[in-house]
Amino acid sequence: MLAANVSRRGSFASTNADSPVADGSPLVCGITHFALFIRLFASFNQVQMSTLASPTPPETMVFPPEQSKDPPALTDIQREILELKETRNAVILAHNYQVEAIQQVADFVGDSLGLSYKAAETNADCIVFCGVHFMAETAKIVNPEKPVYLPDLDAGCSLSDSCPAGKLAAYKAENPDLYVVAYINCSAEVKALSDVICTSGNAVKIVEKVPTDRRILFVPDQNLGQWVSQQTGRNMQLWPGSCYAHVLFTQQAIERVRLEYPEAPVVAHPECVQSVRDMADEVCSTEKMIHFCSNNPAEAFIIVTETGMIHRLQREIPEKTFIAGPTDFCACNECRFMKRNTISKLRDTLRDQKPEIIMEEELRVQAEAPIQRMLEWSH
Ligand code: SF4
Fold it and tell me: Which residues on adjacent β-strands are paired with residue 126?
């Protein structure tokens, strides 16, 4: 059933963008068909389980404090990667959701915007971006002079694919007065159609700067958009896209783990649905999760985002315990697109200097303008 929605880069595209936008209040009216499928499946599953058998919740995944102060020994392939990196004079940028083996050999680990800054600043001859396609594109947009490689070009994103540029262009043509605020998790073509870009870390600040006489269309994440609207009091139209991984977290699954660890604050990403955000002690971007968990006196935290984030939390705050936010079906939640990059694909990319992100200069320039506006408004 899922394969029917696989797009060109292997992502699940939202299928309800024919009437793409949820308007007014209640702010979020649209749900992607995929999310709807998940919820229907979950409801069906709950009925089945309650009538046929006792549900068996997945065992909680706990990452206790790191005992050893020494960095882990590198494997042969990791050493090979470091040698190739030296030979190519490459910089390796890894998103927080990458597998641990990749994070261990990266020069920088961070979120998509932070890594794009690193891409723009680097003196290296080439950039290897271990993340998904739109992130490597963003690195190319801000640093056009250098080749940008992505270990697996099929590392797409359900959220990015839920807002096809053609549908956004058509909607804008019908509604020319709209001011388009685009979450950075979108394609270069969508960025080029937008007025300003934002990240989950600066979205509130960016939306507050949009002139009050302009109607805002927020793309592509309806959950982040709803949260920003609630924080700012700004009414916005929301594009009905979502991250397939973050909508799998449910209130019921998080309640269950909180009963096990009542002292542990729940830290959730704003791409989660409202019922999960409402029960969180902190809703924030992955970068802010580091600061929150460092500064909060609690010894353990329930982390409600992609599980790769816990590798970074463990490295930077080794004295604390992290508990993976579960879904109804699994003890953790991995993004299958992020995990298309593997340590062997990273080695091959450095060795063969491909696959490379190629972009028309006209598109790059158009996509760069709203990113520059974001940077100006972020100060
Ligand atoms: S976690 Fe969600 S938003 Fe991030 S790359 Fe995966 S599908 Fe896209």
Answer: 90
